[in-house]
Amino acid sequence: MKKQLLFFLFIILTFNCYSQITFEEGYFINNKGEKTDCLIKNLDWKNNPTEFKFILSKDATPETLKLKSVKEFGIYGISKFVRFTVKIDISSENISHLSKQKDPIYEEQQLFFKVLVEGKANLYKYQNKTFKRYFYNNQDSEVKQLIFKTYQVSKKKISKNNWYKHQLFSNLKYKDLTQSQIKKVDYNKKDLVDFFIKYNEKNNSEYLNLAVKQEKKLFNLNLRPGLNHSSLTIRNGSAEGRNIDFDTKLAFRFGIEAEFILPYNKNKWAVLIEPTYQYYKSEKETVFAETLTHASTANVEVDYSSIELPIGIRHYSFINDHSKLFFNISYIFDFPSSSTIQSERKDIFDLKIKANKNLAIGAGYTYNKYSLEIRYQTKRDILNGYTYWGSDYKTMSVIFGYRIF
Question: What pLDDT digit, counting tens, does each position of 125-172 carry?
């Protein structure tokens, strides 16, 4: 199973490297102040970038520009990043590594800042894998951090430095602003954006709210009918005569898939939950030895139905606005319902099919609301828990999808 998982992840990464790259209209300004219109690869950066890829025309080879070469870059109507050299608090936000001092631990760094609000007063955001910080300036003043810090007072007590509220009240005060209003401004994107917008409006300043994104649909509900191509082998460690290979069967399956799109990296990743009904029925005549000199035959029937619960992740590779390829991997929990392997003589075969888990990998294509997937499941032991019995239940599926929400 580990080898199959590694192979699947290799396929995802390899295909993603060669899949079509989507560039969007944007610009950059170099250190001389020269502006160049271009097409920029939009990675929908969760963390602030240190470089970006661009092309000057649709047929050009992608080039990379790094932080030191660019004063500003942006994608029209989507995002804007500006370079500043600032003093930034590098204190950890991890509860187990909190600083014991109240004041920020500053380090001077040159960084790209994401512009959230642009006007008489500007609001910027910086985020990396470790922490998130907000910065501001007023007209041509120096860019400074809005100070908020969680720190450890003692082993059992944690406190917060909310100095940013004093900064807002002292440096960005407007008519009718009160201390009680400032107390309600939390150190988060929404509250700070709202404050800076109100400040600009109160000062009759034109402003741009760059924090507003085009609304993204982050949840899909899909109907998922399909066909299973399944086979079953059972074996008995103490009596080889009871080993049986049942025939491969085609059977209907039906699932309802809830897909939760992760809100970064251009919606390329999703988490999946797909409750699915499946069944397998087969019958086989087998010869077994009752004594050393006498053998009998018996019909052995499999009646296996269950609710599978795949939980997994999906990766999309976009072809254009209407179509995309996808790859997913799921861990399947299986819950059988009154499922058995039996013969007329219960002393020969009377086995109850039990719950177990396995892995599934799939690849498919989506066009608007419709999708088609080929899915392979690794072997599942449906006689898990028996001392001498074992089994291999294998399934390949063709799954049709239709998005209803």
Answer: 999 988 999 999 987 789 999 999 999 998 889 999 999 999 999 999
Determine the straight-line distance between the first and last CA of the chain, rounded to whole angstroms.
34
Domain that holds residue 349: 219-403
Residue 372 and residue 338: Cα distance in Å, rounded? 31
CB 110 within 8 Å of CB 84: yes
Alpha carbon of residue 252 to chain centroid: 29
**Cα(221)–Cα(258) distance, rounded to whole angstroms?**
5
Q: Which DSSP string do the residues of 198-212 spell out, in sequence order?
A: HHHHHTT---EETT-
Please give the full DSSP string across 97-133, using - where no structure is assigned: G--S-SS--EEEEEEEEEEEEESSEEEEEEE-SS-EE
Say how far apart CA 199 and CA 188 lie, in whole Å.
Answer: 17
Q: Strand 357-367 and strand 79-89: pairing?
A: unpaired
- Count: domains in the chain: 3
Q: Are 171 and 99 in a shared domain?
A: yes
Instruction: Report the CATH number at residue 393.
Output: 2.40.160.20
168-220 residue pLDDT tens: 999 998 888 999 999 999 999 999 999 999 999 999 999 999 887 655 678 99
Classify residue 84: in a domain, yes or no.
no
319 and 384 housed in the same domain: yes
Write phi, then psi, for 240 (nearest 5 degrees). Answer: -60, -25
Judge whether 45 lies within some domain: yes
